[in-house]
From TrEMBL:
GO CC, alphabetical: plasma membrane; receptor complex
SUPFAM superfamilies in UniProt: Protein kinase-like (PK-like)
Name under which the protein is recorded: Hepatocyte growth factor receptor
InterPro entries registered for this protein in UniProt: Kinase-like_dom_sf (IPR011009), Prot_kinase_dom (IPR000719), RTK (IPR050122), Ser-Thr/Tyr_kinase_cat_dom (IPR001245), Tyr_kinase_AS (IPR008266), Tyr_kinase_cat_dom (IPR020635)
Residues in Protein kinase domain copies: 1-122
GO biological process: cell migration; cell surface receptor protein tyrosine kinase signaling pathway
Matching Pfam families: PK_Tyr_Ser-Thr (PF07714)
Gene Ontology terms for molecular function: ATP binding; transmembrane receptor protein tyrosine kinase activity
Keywords, ordered alphabetically: Receptor
Length: 122
């Protein structure tokens, strides 16, 4: 995670080991708008109505956000890294509205892989 250098990947700033409970804390950049999930929910007129289009965002803004997530995921793939938990809750929005992919807790390096298929008889 410390080696990732991309505009749409949430990079690691540091690790703190001097903590009261002796467990390491990771230090990440501050994301003013939180997760994509909470950001989009906050833009709804009625928070419980899933048909509402987010107020203050255009269709182009939503497509741009999707493209930024896709670019971040492509970067991870190019670096042989599998995220394994891509979700709106794990993508963060900074104060400029740019989306960064984060939360690599389930991620893993992909040194070699196999494609598994389930064969069906028709």
């Amino acid at each position: 995670m410390k080696d990732f250098q991309h505009p749409h990947i949430l990079g690691l700033l540091g690790v703190c080991f001097d903590t009261p409970d002796n467990s390491p804390y990771i230090i990440l950049p501050f994301m003013a708008n939180g997760s994509v999930k909470n950001f989009l929910r906050a833009k709804r007129v009625h928070p419980t109505n899933f048909d509402d289009f987010p107020v203050g965002l255009t269709f182009g803004d939503l497509v741009r956000m999707c493209m930024e997530i896709a670019e971040g995921m492509k970067y991870l793939t190019d670096n042989k890294f599998v995220h394994r938990d891509l979700a709106a809750r794990n993508c963060m929005v900074n104060e400029e509205g740019m989306v960064l992919v984060g939360d690599f807790g389930l991620g893993t390096r992909c040194v070699q892989y196999r494609v598994l298929q389930k064969w069906r008889k028709y």
